[in-house]
Design a protein that fits this description.
Elements (H helix, E strand, L loop, with lengths): L2 H17 L2 E6 L5 H13 L3 E5 L1 H10 L16 E6 L4 H9 L7 E7 L2 E4 L4 H5 L4 H39 L1
Antiparallel strand pairs: 1-3, 1-4, 2-3, 4-5
């Protein structure tokens, strides 16, 4: 790659990072070609972008993204690095856990999820059970609707009781 190609690659990668709220750094070294192809296929099926990147170029792209602090993730850029970009916070973690049932890798180096940074493979379980933004909004709406439903059903039930009592009194 010449300088112009590297500069264009860094710009493209920085643009992609600026729109991504979920970024996983993984180590996929030593996987066979067949395993990597299977991983890529699963990523495509679950709408996760998987790219093998050069550490120096990724670091430069991270530095170019304004308004984002990748903190410790830059120090993890050693050895083989692949990035997984997704719209859902837990989708890459679930994919990694599922894939590791048959393979030893990918290993999670770190993750950036909605401004939170997770470092180390031991964070994979935490990320796997993290709820997506849509799931959290759904739960909040459900919790907010629950008391209103109780009040309405209570009023309907009480209104029917009062109407029944009045009808009984009227008939006497």
């Amino acid at each position: 790659m010449n300088r112009e190609q590297k500069a264009q690659y860094i710009d493209d990668l920085a643009a992609e990072l600026s729109t991504a709220n979920v970024l996983y750094l993984t180590d996929t070294a030593e996987l066979t070609v067949e395993s990597v192809n299977a991983l890529r296929r699963r990523c495509f099926q679950t709408q996760i972008s998987l790219k093998v990147v050069k550490n120096a170029l990724l670091k430069k792209a991270m530095e170019r993204v304004e308004g984002r602090n990748y903190g410790e993730l830059k120090s993890l850029l050693k050895g083989s690095t692949s990035i997984m970009i997704s719209q859902e916070a837990n989708a890459p973690a679930r994919l990694i856990q599922e894939f590791r049932k048959k393979n030893a890798k990918p290993i999670l180096k770190g993750a950036y999820v909605e401004e939170a940074i997770f470092v180390g493979d031991n964070q994979l379980i935490t990320l796997e059970f993290m709820k997506s933004k849509d799931e959290l909004i759904g739960e909040i709406i459900g919790l907010l609707q629950s008391p209103a439903k109780n009040v309405v059903s209570g009023l309907k039930g009480a209104g029917a009781k009062i109407a029944g009592i009045l009808k009984t009194l009227e008939e006497r």
